[in-house]
Amino acid sequence: MIKQFIFLFLFIISCSKIESQEQNIGLPQSKIIEIKDFIKGKNYNQNIAVFINFKIPSGKYRYFVYDLKNNKILQKAVVSHGSGSVVANSEVLKFSNVEGSYQSSLGKYEIRESYAGKFGKSYRLNGLDNTNNNAMQRAIILHSYYCIPDKESQTPACLSLGCPMLSINAFKETAKLIDSSKQPIILYAFY
Predict the structure, then answer these.
(1) Helices vs. strands in the chain: H and E counts, helices first
(2) In this structure, are residues 62 and 53 in contact, taking their beta carbons and an 8 Å threshold?
(3) Whose CA, among 49, 106, 108, 137, lies 20 to 30 Å from 32?
(4) Can you tell me the mean pLDDT for 26-35?
C-alpha cells in the first residue's frame, strides 16, 4: 500500500513538472528573469511582457505574452521576421538595426501608442538597446497582416520589412492586453 502511494505521489509530481516545462517551451527562464530584473522599479508594466524567440522557425509559435506574476504564458502566436533576416540556403537568421536592411532587430522594445496606419491599428516600438534603437526611425511597428496564420505549421510565415507581424486574430488578442495596460509593456526579441 505504501509503495503504491509513493509511486502515485512521484507520478503526480513528475507530471506537474512536465506540464510546467511544456507550458514554457520556447521561452527560456533566463530571458524571463532578465526582463523581470530590467523592469523592476521602472515605469513599465510589472505584470506582463511580450517575448519573441527568433530561434524558433517562423511557422511555429514563437511570440509569447507572458504573465510575470503568475509565471505562465497568456498567449502564443506565429510572428514574422524581416525578409532581410533570411540567409540563403540556411535556417540561420541575421539581424540589423540599419535603415533599409529589412532585417528584424533584437533587443528590448517599449510598446508605445497605437495609431491607424497602412496596416490598420498598429503600435509604435521604441528600441531600448543599441541593437534596436533605430526602430522608430525605421518605422518598426507591431501590426497584423493577413498572410500570418492563426495556427502554427511547418510552413514558414510570410516575411515583413523588419516588423513583427501577427495574424489578425492574434493581434486583436494582444491589443486588448496592451490597451488595458496603464504602463508601457516591454517586448523582448531574442535569438
Answers:
(1) 4, 8
(2) yes
(3) 137
(4) 98
Rounded CA-CA distance 191/39 in Å is: 20
Closest CA to 174 of 142, 132, 148, 147: 142
Q: Which residues contact 1 (CB under 8 A, 6 or more apart)?
A: none
State the cell numbers at 164. 513583427
- List of residues 6+ apart from 100 with CB closer than 8 A: none
Q: Residue ranges of the alpha helices (H) in 106-158? A: 135-138
Which helix H or strand E contains 39, and what residues bound it?
A: helix 29-39
Q: How far apart are CA 33 and CA 66, in angstroms?
A: 12
Count CA atoms closer than 13 A to 51's CA, side-chain side.
30
Confidence of residue 1 (pLDDT cuts 50, 70, 90): low
Q: Give residue-wise pLDDT tens across range 71-97.
A: 999 999 999 999 999 999 999 999 999
Pairing outcome for strands 107-117 and 72-77: unpaired
SS3 166: strand
According to DSSP, residue 83 is labeled G
Distance CA 9, CA 25 (A): 25
